[in-house]
Amino acid sequence: MQILTNKAELLVHFETYQYFWQIIASASANRKTMPFTFNELLTVTFTLFAVIDIVGSIPVFISIKQKVGGINEARATLISGALMIAFLYIGEAFLSILGLDLRSFAVGGSIVIFIVGLEMVLGMEFFKSEKDVKAATLVPIAFPLIAGSGTLTTIISLKAGFSDWAILTGVILNLVVIYTVLKSLNFIARLLGNAGLLAVRKFFGVILLAIAVKIFAENAHGLIK
């Protein structure tokens, strides 16, 4: 892991973790208003973790960091988190304006997730992304690498089967992981090596394929007549 060289950086590092855990603690204090089980939280958390693919994106993050000379890890994490949480609460209303329901979007989202899973397993690129690194913290790190279309689609798709509290908690837990990974890029790359990164990416690709099939099966029956 990166060595913190001064007290100021240590303070920022500590306060960012403290901010996330305060949110989680606050949520735990309101446990009665959170109708979800541990298994549901685990499913949501790992689904988002697989879609975000923070581990599989490590080579991209390292390349961007080398090109721009550094990454503001806390800012990138908070911006991506804000995008995900905003879409969790206003995404459905946005769909209503477009005349779409949650099941339709869930089915469409499952197809996108399935294609992303195929990309990870087969090593092919179906979705073309921009290579602009001028504003690396916001674009492309916060969006679309972390809170991209696949992640936002998945959040809406998860609303068809899980409570907002479960999804919000899962998002927060993933933000903690995202911040930790961004602070530990060099260490993780050395630890896993190229072969390890490839294996992890393909493993989560298979998980995504299974998740996509499940979401499609649970929502398509109400649309196909």
Structure at a glance:
The protein is built from nine helices and no strands.
Characterization of the model:
There is one protein chain. The chain has helices spanning 7-29, 38-52, 58-68, 73-97, 102-122, 137-146, 149-158, 164-183, 185-220. The protein is mainly alpha-helical and 225 residues long. It is built from nine helices and no strands. The protein has one domain. The longest helix is centred in the C-terminal third of the chain and has 36 residues, at 185-220. Helix content is 76%, strand content 0%.
Helix and strand arrangement:
Layout (H helix, E strand, L loop, with lengths): L6 H23 L8 H15 L5 H11 L4 H25 L4 H21 L14 H10 L2 H10 L5 H20 L1 H36 L5
Helix pairs in contact: 1-8, 2-7, 2-8, 3-9, 4-6, 4-7, 4-8, 5-7, 5-9
Residue-averaged pLDDT, rounded?
Answer: 77
The proportion of strand residues reads under 5%
Helical fraction equals over 70%
Number of domains as seen in the coordinates: 1
Stretches where pLDDT is under 50 for at least 5 consecutive residues are 130-134
Radius of gyration: 18 Å
Q: Largest sheet at a glance?
A: none
First and last CA, distance: 54 Å
Number of helices: 9
What string gives the helices and strands in order? HHHHHHHHH
Number of DSSP-assigned strands: 0
Structural class: mainly alpha
Principal-axes shape call: globular
Descriptive terms for the model:
9 helices; mainly alpha; 225 residues
